């Protein structure tokens, strides 16, 4: 195994979804931009959900796999930004590989940057943390009151609709799928079209449907991004259901199944951006209105349109621990395993 013997990390959760931050002790990741470093991490001939083995990916496996992680773990490697306009860059990772966008992770990074003193912040008021990610430059506005962080607002790269009502055959029936790009490509489908509700009890069927839809759309032209293959292809499937509107706008619940069947415990930050773009095109959400977006665990994000396809999503992020993980060279399990 080529991973270092110890790896330090700081863990947060954003609306229930974990985010493990590694800011030092990483092997070199060549590239002039975060997008180039992401391509390096994936490796020649690899993909976001099937990266090539290498020193950096050994660290990812060590942190995401059991016994140090789990199949629902998510995290990021802090790397240099593209230029001085951002505070830092990040490479997002999950159990299967790497992603180009992560709203909940950006919120966690904003809270971490302020909590750690990396970015100075007032005791009362807001401060913006600018982060370069593989899909572009995003921002986390950290809200402070009484010397503590009370919330974080994630401003994403512009979102756009790719296609509407694409018929997809699943083992649960035909689904009409909407496709939108919001830093990553998301396919949205109404859970009821598949005879499902967004509940914990239905998670096995929701995950199966998400995996089938993602596989069926693998070569669909609407999943292609003009910036190339790194940003192309369905990353997540948002299975959603309607709840009664609030006085401020629509109210929905979703579960996002991403990568190879991983479940987002939060309402999914960049997935919320994709939902906002679709709702705007439907005429159901205008500027000044909010989407109240619930997760399958009951946590909430609030999303809104800013203009020009730009969206903002607000939630909370809390530190859960600091860790020094050890890789004993005599441990036969090495970087671990996934179940």
TrEMBL record:
Taken from the record, one Pfam family name reads Pro_racemase
**Gene3D superfamilies named in the record:** Diaminopimelate Epimerase, Chain A, domain 1 (3.10.310.10)
- By its UniProt entry, which InterPro entries does this protein fall under? Pro_racemase_fam (IPR008794)
What family does this chain come from, according to its entry? Belongs to the proline racemase family.
What is the name attached to this protein's record? Proline racemase family protein
Tell me what organism the protein belongs to.
Answer: Streptomyces racemochromogenes
Lineage runs: Bacteria, Bacillati, Actinomycetota, Actinomycetes, Kitasatosporales
